[in-house]
């Protein structure tokens, strides 16, 4: 059965290592017959959540920026995929800001069930990504019908393009996309 997949590339860098993993995931998913869409946040305006919680009653954020359109697309997808570089052992600030802005989804009827994380780090240790995984799991726990379905850890990607030398991570991202 074909699924609608939204890939959110949260790197601040065009063509970075985590975006490369996202593209490989997309290739696998499309070859398996799934419908994919990729949104890169490096050129989007996404303000910080104000914490007013108005969205909990209105279903809409008071802020008018690119997050509103992204959230609407997230709501309608079967699968969400977050791609992030790891900075200081955590997800990118862009990813965290986007997650915070999804508060209007909390009381909404959302379609997504499976959520994936594609992460890259300069550090060689897979444990360098645990805080990012935990952070995403915390967000997922607010969406009872959803689950973390898989994580790809692209370690040792210390400069732009270095992920191309990480065949295991590239292969894992491709296979994950094929097997969504």
UniProtKB/TrEMBL annotation:
Name used for this protein in its record: Flavodoxin family protein
GO terms of molecular function: oxidoreductase activity
Keywords: Flavoprotein, FMN
Domain NADPH-dependent FMN reductase-like: 4-123
A Pfam family assignment: FMN_red
Entry annotated with the keyword Flavoprotein: yes
């Amino acid at each position: 059965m074909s699924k609608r997949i939204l890939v959110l590339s949260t790197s601040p860098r065009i063509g970075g290592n985590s975006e490369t993993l996202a593209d490989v995931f997309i290739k696998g998913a499309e070859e398996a017959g799934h419908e994919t869409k990729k949104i890169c946040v490096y050129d989007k305006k996404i303000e910080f959540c104000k914490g007013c919680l108005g969205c909990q009653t209105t279903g809409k954020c008071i802020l008018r920026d690119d997050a509103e359109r992204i959230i609407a697309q997230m709501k309608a997808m079967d699968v969400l995929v977050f791609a992030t570089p790891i900075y200081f052992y955590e997800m990118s600030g862009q990813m965290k800001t986007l997650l915070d802005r999804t508060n209007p989804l909390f009381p909404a009827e959302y379609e997504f069930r499976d959520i994936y994380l594609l992460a890259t780090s300069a550090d060689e240790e897979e444990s360098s990504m645990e805080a990012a995984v935990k952070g995403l799991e915390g967000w997922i726990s607010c969406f009872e019908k959803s689950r973390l379905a898989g994580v790809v850890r692209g370690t040792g990607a210390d400069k732009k393009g270095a992920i191309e030398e990480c065949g295991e991570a590239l292969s894992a991202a491709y296979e994950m996309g094929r097997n969504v």
